[in-house]
## 1
Amino acid sequence: MFYEKLKWNKKYLNINYKKPSPLLDFIPNSNGKALDLGGGLGQNSEILLSKGYNVTLIDISDIAISKIKNPKIFKICLDLDNYTIEPNKFDVILKLKYFNFNLLKQIPKALKENGYFVFETIDKYQIDKDYFFELFKNFDIIHFNQKPFQFVGVKRGCN
Ligand SMILES: C[S@@+](CC[C@H](N)C(=O)[O-])C[C@H]1O[C@@H](n2cnc3c(N)ncnc32)[C@H](O)[C@@H]1O
């Protein structure tokens, strides 16, 4: 969406750095594939790279993406509103402070078995805990916090 892109580009004009999420401490080292949805300036992608992952970051803001200097992060600038994630492809998916129900519903299928989902939403986006845990019923919970809503889980079996 044009205005969404404009809004985020405006925000990123004056922001060059954000702190990586401490939730990434739960993710083991691996040479697997990771996807950072709404990844912004790429600080969380950087941590996954340092853990050995092959990382793809997607974001609507070309300004944010232009500020990511590490050539090892595969960057895609697009609107995720109607995006379909390839099933059974990723070992880690990050969805940090970027809320999108359409994508949330796809995560269980998009992850490989034993894949990690790292999720945090900012308070203005309320999420129903029962709905969330029904969606992620085949996941082992590594970390959960209600406010802010945070979840780190590992997919077990099929979904
Ligand atoms: C609050 S920021 C979070 C960025 C990063 N995940 C972090 O934790 O720092 C939300 C991000 O989602 C991106 N975003 C918002 N709407 C989007 C959309 N429709 N498609 C793709 N990215 C979007 C913004 O550009 C922004 O980088």
## 2
Amino acid sequence: MAVAVAFAFAFAVEVEVGVEVGVEVRVEVAIEVAIEVRVAVEVAVAVAFAVEVRVAVAVEVAVAVEVEVAVAVAVAVAVAVAVGGRRRGPMVPLPAPRYTPPVRYTPSVRRRVRPLSPARAARLRPLLDALDAELDRTARISADPVEFPRRFPDPHDAEVAGLVAVSLAYGRADVFKPVVARVLARMAPSPARFAERFARAPDPAAFDGILYRFNRPADLAALVAAIGHLRLRHGSLGDRFTALFEEAEREAEAEAAEARSKAPRAAPAAPAPRALRPALSRFAAELRDAPPVAALLQGRGGRGLRHLLPDPSGPGASKRWNLYLRWMIRGPDAVDLGIWRGVPPSALVVPLDTHVHRVARHLGLTARRDASWRTAEEITAALRGVDPDDPVRYDFALCHLGMSGRCPARGEAARCAVCRLARACLSGPARSSTRRSA
Ligand code: SF4
């Protein structure tokens, strides 16, 4: 039992710190752990709820008083573990248990994963096309932050609205979307012109009254001023990102050439896009360090802005950054805008969130449990087998399969029976019956 609880803590905290996820996911992770080590699911669920509350409070406090979030989280977990060790019951009042164990088709997805072979990629593609085709785009776009940049026909406004929207796209969509709408309403009618004017003459009170979780009006003012500064200096965000991407590509090619000269007989490394992450990291740093930012954040500190514009070279999957790039670079189609033409869609990395991660594990695109950049790259590499020129083309469909609640954490007969991906799913009923008959 103690081991199970410790595992549940570890997974719950890892998920909390690594990506923005809901309680539902923490509970699912806890349940998975509980099943693996055969302990009571209710205990694991209780622990997941308790840790979620403690860690959320710790992070809020850390942001408020400008201390290290990692330290605060570690303290919260230590306290939670200590309290959990003394008590046998839940640490906070809990709702009635609402989890019913589903039909379990596979004991572990991890043990059954194989690299995506060309034959498997060829089988997967029509299934993904079918999933994509059946998607109710109008309904799903209205539940997605891509709705905001799509409101603006001018690409300059769209790239600014997109960055504002994606920076705030953490937590639940139905909670952050009204916040994004309020920020953009203050920047109407042209977010691009507003941001440029704002960079020249910042008004610290421009976003007064708009608060969202870790962010305060000063953070929003700094974000908009930074966007305006980059646009004034480089013409557009797209122009600047493209220049950084090309620079990073040249550096990656020079590094590869040097490695080849040192080991001429070594097999050439498989071509893999390596420029995106460093380019993104420099882009984020330029925004955070834009000259108008410091004055706007006086007395506030930079932690809130860093949450809006995180560093992609960190351990996380940088879901929001990769989502923004997907919107700007691929397409145009019914979802993505395709307004930055200087970067190829083949260089994109899948915006890894809990929904995409879950479906990717079901499909055997990754066996990794951590929501890291490495996992995102692994899933992207598998999807590159399906479409080398546009590996993230199915991201919207995969994400909304998870978001809509149609794909459970483990295979369930009723939901899997109507799933377009069932024939390729490692957790679905088709696989299960194949194995039974083999
Ligand atoms: S078959 Fe079931 S578990 Fe697999 S992807 Fe579809 S809904 Fe999810």
